[in-house]
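Data availability (excerpt). The following record was deposited with the supplementary files.
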Amino acid sequence: MVHRTPFKQSQTINDWTGSEVFLKLENLQKTGSFKIRGAFNKVAQLSIEECSRGLIAASAGNHAQGVALAGRERGIPVTIYMPKTTPETKVSATRKYGATVKLFGKSFDEAYVAAREEQLETGATFIHPFDDLAVIEGQATVAMEMLQQQPELDTIIVPAGGGGLLAGTALAVKTIRPDVKVIGVQAANSPAIYMSFHGMRNNNIPFLPTIAEGICVKEPGKLTTDIINNYVDDIITVTEQEISSTIVFMLEREKLLVEGAAAAAISAVLNKKLPVSSNKTGVIVSGGNFDLSKVAGCMQRATNSVQNF
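Predicted structure:
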């Protein structure tokens, strides 16, 4: 059910960075995001009794589509809570997959609380977007494919919000190729995992709007945080200008539409922020569900640096 997505090089990025950079194009995945991997893996493991109670989830958008499609494939009714700030493209796509969508709050964390409250009332089966081992294992298949497609990788760059993709990548990579460095990337406006990883106090964490709404999570998972702290090599942040510039760059130079979360990971490479030297770098382009109405704002935020890439 899940595509084995392309893993391509960009000559422009190679020339700019002086190394070989491979883009894992999960924006071309079913539902436009890697999230389908974890959702399908989790839903496939549910018992008949768990399925009979229906599924409920909270999502910033991409997990919603994965759960909706996975539920439809098994004939299970699905309810999804999403923040009111979710791009319309993600909301409409989730509805088209047959899920009931409820918009609540201004952030993923507020939508998550509302979904948990309904789950307690109805007894529906909750499908967590990141803090679940079956979901993490599903996301790990991205990294496993990357290592098969390019065995000589020495570094993998991963966008991080709740941490499911980063945790899954770290587990897979450090099991198969422990010498490969795993670097997480967060939006500077929402750096909860970054601050936790670097030992900073949680009450000092800024939590501001970001164009990378897919990784705008205030409370990362406990399971994901433990895995990340034990297996990830480093975590860095990128700014809104850097993310916006990368979205524009990918449209102009690569003819690919990527969402903010994916752009964050690419941005770390384009802006030469990697804390390690790398000859063959793999970047997880996590999704492409970007609201086209935001392109103009992106171009305004993008600095002239995009012209220099």
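Summary of structural features: The two ends are 36 Å apart (CA to CA).
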